[in-house]
Amino acid sequence: MTRVLVLGQTGQLARGLARATAPEGWRLSFTGRDRADLLDPDSVTELIRSERPDVVINTAAYTAVDRAEAEPDLAFAVNARAPEAIAKAALGSGSLLIHVSTDYVYGGGSGGPYSEADPVAPVQAYGRSKAEGERLLLAANPQALVVRTAWLLSEMSGFVRAILERARRGEALRVVDDQMGNPTHADDLAAALLKIAQMRLEGRGEPGILHVAGPLSATWCEVARDLIAGLERENGTDEALRPISSSEYGATAPRPRDSRLSVAQLKSRWGMELRPWTAWVAETAKVGQSSAPISVEKGQQSGG
Predict the structure, then answer these.
(1) Are 44 and 85 in contact (CB under 8 A)?
(2) Buried b (16+ CB within 10 A) or exposed e, 31-52
(3) One of 106, 114, 126, 249 is an active-site residue; which one?
(4) Of 17, 132, 236, 282, whose CB count within 10 A is highest?
(5) Does the model's pTM come out above 0.85?
(6) SS3 sequence of the chain
(7) Residues of the chain with confidence (pLDDT) below 50
């Protein structure tokens, strides 16, 4: 039996892994803060050393991009120091480690798509904490694999649910239209992570850094427009969608204008390609539409 320990339990990616079809003979277990608190690296280290899983997949992170500007120490504790401890524990236990990172390690100043070899240049505390986490993790465990992904979405993501909930209410939508990235479905990333883990256990592929994201880029406004289009076909809604600039939106933390990831290596070296966002956005809107309504603050626009 191949034992996979997933750090994370309630996030989009952890739920995607729970839904994914694992290879025959694999058993996935999921761990929340009750058993492995990233603010207490010793608890995570002890868990890995006691269970000695074949694979550790770290999906847990501090992801509050704006709040991180006021809480940089907390962001670095969770996104940098904890991954370093996880890396050391995995190496000591002989476990394959896959750590999930982000396109926000890039600043967007030179324009994407960025390859794995391009230097990082984050423009906000969150991105700096994730970049430092990558550095510390790979220094502690050179056999680990850092998977950078981008714009992770699903029917439960904040962006999707905020857009659909406002559409339900007939509210006007202000959506950023000057940031570019790779929309990626959480289920697609989950399936890719399991396949990557299987290949690594078989001695294929390489450690280091790998970009795993949707192959087709978009702006947040383009994704919102297609989400709403699906809703309009179902309900005949007629809400206004207004593209706005990042400066108009006025987020606390700056975002990269162009953080597109090149996924050429994923296809050429690993033989994988995720679905483009246009292939799943309508179904995601349909599933999200049937979900329970959520509380959405006035002025909120989760993308950007």
Answers:
(1) yes
(2) beeeebbbeebebbbebbeeee
(3) 126
(4) 17
(5) yes
(6) CEEEEEEECCCHHHHHHHHCCCCCCEEEEEECCCCCCCCCHHHHHHHHHHHCCCEEEECCCCCCCCHHHCCHHHHHHHHHHHHHHHHHHHHHHCCEEEEEEEHHHCCCCCCCCECCCCCCCCCCHHHHHHHHHHHHHHHHCCCCEEEEECCEECCCCHHHHHHHHHHHHCCCEEEECCCEECCEEHHHHHHHHHHHHHHHHCCCCCCEEEECCCCCCEEHHHHHHHHHHHHHHHHCCCCCEEEECHHHHCCCCCCCCECCECCHHHHHHHCCCCCCHHHCHHHHHHHHHCCCCCCCCCCCCCCC
(7) 236, 238, 292, 294-304
Looking at residue 66, its amino acid is D
Asked if 59 and 13 touch (Cβ cutoff 8 Å), the reply is yes
Residue 114: active-site member: no
Residue closest to 120 by CA, chosen among 99, 142, 104, 137: 104
Give the residue among 116, 139, 167, 143 at the shortest CA–CA distance from 286.
167
Model pLDDT, residue 34: 85
User: Which of 228, 237, 220 lies closest to 300, judged by CA?
Assistant: 220
Residue 219: its pLDDT value, please? 98
Q: Are 176 and 223 in contact (CB under 8 A)?
A: no
Cα angle, residue 304 at apex, residues 120 and 114 outer, rounded to 5°:
30
User: Peptide bond preceding 113: is omega within 30 degrees of 0, i.e. cis?
Assistant: yes
Q: How many residues does the chain have?
A: 304
pLDDT at 110: 87
Yes or no: say if 155 and 104 are a contact pair by the CB < 8 Å rule: no
Give pLDDT, residue 300: 34
